[in-house]
Design brief:
mainly alpha; 1 helix; 0% strand; rod-shaped
């Protein structure tokens, strides 16, 4: 019975850790990605502005770069946090 209880606690802990880790990682990664996307977007935007894209090219570059860096950051950090949360949660009930 102790083994069944330990396995059940480990499975529940893993699922909870993955869920919380994924939610936290997606939010944090998206915020960090957007922050990184701003200067990169301005760099691309100034190049677009200088090559004839005008203010519309600058604004589009900044916004699109912020969006895609946010998406990429959210996916990557969400994946990393989900793995870490699952590993940490799987130890729940280890002392039983």
């Amino acid at each position: 019975m102790k083994l069944v209880k330990r396995i059940a606690k480990g499975a529940v802990g893993t699922a909870g850790g993955v869920g919380v880790g994924l939610a936290t990682g997606v939010m944090a990664g998206a915020m960090n990605g957007v922050q990184l996307g701003i200067p990169v977007g301005f760099l691309f935007g100034f190049i677009s502005f200088a090559t004839g894209g005008g203010f519309q090219g600058l604004l589009a570059s900044v916004l699109l770069t912020m969006f895609w860096f946010g998406v990429a950051g959210g996916i990557l950090l969400g994946l990393f946090f989900a793995i870490a949360g699952g590993a940490a949660g799987s130890t729940w009930g280890k002392d039983d």
